[in-house]
Amino acid sequence: MRTDGPKGLYRGFGISVVTYAPSNAVWWASYSVAQRMVWGGVGYYLSNKKGGEGSDRSINGANVLRPDTKTVMAVQGVSAAMAGGMSALITMPLDTIKTRLQVLDGDENGRRGPTVMQTVRSLVKEGGWTACYRGLGPRWASMSVSATTMITTYEFLKRLSAKNQEVLT
Question: What is d(CA 24, CA 80) in angstroms, rounded to the nearest whole number?
Fold first, then answer.
């Protein structure tokens, strides 16, 4: 606030929007694909397991596995972590550029900080294109843990709300 005023608080806002919008789009698409993959593996495991924990039921003459709540939450958590990792991997260059723009100051003559293109050129000059992936491990872990926490909480509250609605009717 002292050096840049309120404008300094919003440094990198535009690039943040450009980073987080694709990140969320990639996350939701990846989550859907990951869920199908994980459910496929879980379904295969449960159907081959003798006396599985999931209860069987018949719909139109076909046996259908019905997994327990713990299995559902585990699949959602694993799928969320996988989606978080995929989103981190795909959008990491945008996040690296965003972070650089937010932390770099303009020079002392009151000029603005570097542009997006200047930042990209500087990164590539410093370490090639792999420089755009600096910090991927921590970002991967952060996004995976955050996504797992978010989706399992959301799905739990959704199930809890649906149960409460069943009681009311």
Answer: 12
DSSP tag of 130: G
Q: What is the DSSP secondary structure assignment for residue 113, as one 8-state letter?
A: -
Rounded distance between C-alpha atoms, residue 133 and residue 96, angstroms: 7
Give how far Cα 49 sits from Cα of 1, 40, 87, 114, Å. Answer: 62, 14, 33, 59
Name the 3-class secondary structure at 150. Answer: helix
Its sign, for the CA torsion 11, 12, 13, 14, is positive
Helix axes 69-103, 13-48, angle to 10 degrees: 160
Number of helical H runs and strand E runs in the chain: 5, 2
Per-residue pLDDT tens digits for 31-49: 999 999 999 888 766 666 6
Q: What is the pLDDT of residues 49-86, one digit of tens each?
A: 645 444 455 445 555 667 788 888 999 999 999 999 99
pTM of the model: 0.73
Please report the domains of the chain, with CATH numbers, ordered by start residue.
6-168 (1.50.40.10)
